Amino acid sequence: TAIRFAKNGFVVLSIDPISQGERYQFTNKKGNPSTRGGTTGHTLLDAGSNLVGTNVPAYQVWDNERGLDYLTSLNIVDTSRLGCLGNSGGGTQTAYFIPYDQRIKVSAIASYVTRRERTLLLLGPQDGCQWLPDESKAGLDISDYTIMFAPKPVLILAGRYGFVDYNGTKDVYRELKEVYQYFNQPNKIRLFAADDGHGIQKSKQIAAVEWFRRWFYQDTSSIKGADLQTLSEKELQVTKTGQVNSSFSDENTIQARNLRIADQWKKRRSQLLKRSTSSEYKAMLRKLLRIAPQTSSVRIQEMGSFSKEGYHFKKLILRRAGQPPLPCLLGFPSEKKNSQKLLLGLNKNGKKTILKNEKLWKQYTKDNDILLLADLRGMGETADPKSKNPDKYYNKEYRVAMLSSFIGKPLPGQRVQDILTLLDYHDQEAQLQATKVKIKASGPAAEAALLATALDHRINKVSLSDMPSSFYDYLHHPLTKEQYSYVIPDALVYFDLPDIVQFIGKDKVQFDK
């Protein structure tokens, strides 16, 4: 693509995005990439970036703006005629960049434009470079970035048989035509579709060159479509080793930058904890977690019963307006029906794990407490199918975690909402009202239990296991799996997990091995 543009009168600057080409952020001692692909690196970097209040698309915008600064510094470049073209992930970058930098006058976006809803329905959230936290909450769809750029010329390049849904592409194009018609500039928006798949193949390259020549050179003629030969990857290599990380000892990675940003927020986090009243601190947590007040009662649907080793269980589904159903098991000890404590069991693999694992079962039943075992959303009976979460994302619930962030309701906050529903059920159930509540939780459920304990005085004690001791764990070890299950955007701007323990009081929080 770059060669074809250069042969037709353009200066072309092609940038390696972070975690691709020569800019892999995670490399071993030999300088080779540590992940299976660049987009996996994008996803892992995005988790840590979200924690400190930024994201991978923002880093890419920064790179592209600096690249444009360099390009405009060259004497051979006409700075009044600057364009931007990107394919696939580069199409994502182009969509975000063109409304951001006013220097761009013409654009072409390849193998990216469609309806968000179609992508979510057919493919799922995709990589960490494809999304912004709260993007849906802000009411933004892919078309909106081009609308912000309107009425400057934009060419949409598409493959009818690629995985980017072409029906969604056509729908976006119909909307954009209306916008450009409103500006009386209908000729400045165009869709070129080829009978091929994902990518910027030869016919799309030609269409793109002709588009830019039309608007920069007022040339509407067709160009020749000769086959072009490229150099090998090694010949195109800029650094000595093939990776910036191993070529420069002082190279600054995104991981290192995120750690520095987190450190810069330490004083703020400390002051918030020291100077905020209890109600102020809780209000801050509710805002970050997006916890909405619940005024509706909890409806109870009984689904049967069973007995197990001295306990009789009721199968329940708790329902609340606007919330997903919450599957539970309520168990009473046969020999001690007047128990003074309710043990709320929240296992990362679901309530059935507690029943089937003999060691766990003994831990839960040793004090003859009343048991309320629940599957928080995304766990147990509500877990997302494995097939929807490819291994490359390093997270077995990546889809629901990313969708939650996208709609502005982080998954940990939604799970806290479930725990608050369980507490409300406790209050309205006559057999439970007099009991004190303690929680035993693991994994992402443990994080939710800790946060719920900070927000609600009805929880008397929590025993937590298999969770990070600090969000810094992920910043120091970004290749750790299941990160996104714990991510709360902007969290480290306001608090870290040890701050929550301090806020609650160490006497109420126990960490189990």
The parts where pLDDT drops under 50 for at least 5 residues are: none
Total number of beta strands: 12
Measured distance between first and last alpha carbons: 55 Å
Largest sheet: 8 strands, mixed
Backbone shape: elongated
The percentage of residues in β strands lies in 15-25%
**What topology, given as strand order, has the largest sheet?**
5-6-7-9-8-10-11-12
Specify the structural class: alpha/beta
Q: For the CA atoms, what is the radius of gyration?
A: 27 Å
Number of DSSP helical runs: 21
Proportion of residues in helical segments: 25-40%
Q: What number is the mean pLDDT?
A: 95
Explain how this protein is built.
The structure is a single chain. With 513 residues, the chain is of the alpha/beta class. It is 40% helix and 15% strand. The protein contains 21 helices and twelve strands. The model has no long low-confidence stretch (mean pLDDT 95).
Précis, in short:
The chain has 513 residues and is α/β, with parallel strands linked by helices. 40% of the residues lie in helices and 15% in strands. The protein starts with a helix and ends with a strand.
Question: SSE layout and pairings?
Answer:
Layout: H1 2-6, H2 38-51, H3 56-72, E1 83-87, H4 89-97, E2 106-110, H5 116-122, H6 142-149, E3 154-159, H7 166-182, E4 189-194, H8 202-217, H9 233-236, H10 244-247, H11 254-264, H12 266-275, H13 278-289, E5 299-308, E6 311-319, E7 326-333, E8 341-346, H14 351-356, H15 358-365, E9 370-374, H16 398-406, H17 411-428, E10 436-442, H18 444-455, E11 459-465, H19 472-476, H20 491-494, H21 497-504, E12 509-511
Parallel strand pairs: 1-2, 2-3, 3-4, 8-9, 8-10, 10-11, 11-12
Antiparallel strand pairs: 5-6, 6-7, 7-9
Helix pairs in contact: 2-11, 3-4, 6-7, 17-18, 18-21
